[in-house]
Amino acid sequence: MEKRHVRATAVVAAALWTTVMWAGAAPASAESSPPPEDVGSYAPPPPPPELSLVGSSVDVACVRDVPVITYRVVLTDPSGVSTSHDAFLIITDGVNRVELPLGDVSSGELSGSMLWPGASVDAAGNGTGWPGWVFRDGEWVETDGNFGWTRADIRATIEVNPEMPVPMAYPPATSACAGPTVTGTPLSAGSAPLAATGGDATAIAVVGGAALAAIAVGATVLVARRRRA
């Protein structure tokens, strides 16, 4: 009888011990697991910037009576996917087209200036030629050539790969850039009609025929007076 009592007591004690150990181990297991709200709480990093020309611009102004184009090209290419680093300024009226080389933009940024197509200057920087005008038989006359179409409605694009349209227009006809204001000698034969800084502007590719140039009223009156004289 005493042996059975001892065995029963041992069984009860063992059961109690197992229960206590299980209860004590449960909190430790719970503490080792992260709370559900912490799982997946870290946001992934933002994607890198896309290939773009954001920040690029073109400005036009009269400098000593000659139209000058000032440009800035900013190429964002974090993944190196651009297939070219040669920058161009494309001008078109839908029929005619001219490509002006601006230079290499491998460094990510390029800036400089150049004369408007058809404009020219002498060694002192004074205007000797204007788009849509030619010096013929001792006087300046308007012409459909010499990039006269660029004085009308045009569209401009900075192109590297990608490309970006930019606002651009010839200076107002009321400015000195409208055309020649005094009798003078035009650009000498063999001289380059375009000058540029900050880029390679030694070549111009022209596609299409010439369109009728926009006529500057003030300059037309001036030419008529000279002819009557």
The number of helices is 2
Estimated helix fraction: 10-25%
Parts with pLDDT < 50 across at least 5 consecutive residues: 188-229
Give the helix/strand class.
alpha+beta
**Total number of β-strand segments?**
13
Lateral arrangement of strands in the main beta sheet: 11-10-3-4-13
Give structural notes.
The protein is an alpha+beta fold and 229 residues long. It has one domain. Helix content is 19%, strand content 28%. It is built from 2 helices and 13 strands; from the N terminus they run H-E-E-E-E-E-E-E-E-E-E-E-E-E-H. The chain has helices at residues 2-32, 217-228; strands spanning 57-63, 66-74, 86-92, 97-104, 109-115, 120-121, 127-129, 133-136, 139-142, 155-159, 163-166, 196-197, 205-207. It has a 5-stranded antiparallel β-sheet with strand order 11-10-3-4-13, with no helix packed on it. The chain has a 4-stranded antiparallel β-sheet with strand order 1-2-5-12, with no helix packed on it. Strand 6 and strand 7 form a beta hairpin. The model is unreliable at 188-229 (pLDDT under 50). It comes from Microbacterium telephonicum. The chain crosses the membrane at residues 203-224. Residues 33-50 have a biased composition (Pro residues).
How would you concisely characterize the structure shown here?
With 229 residues, the chain is an alpha+beta fold. It is built from 2 helices and 13 strands.
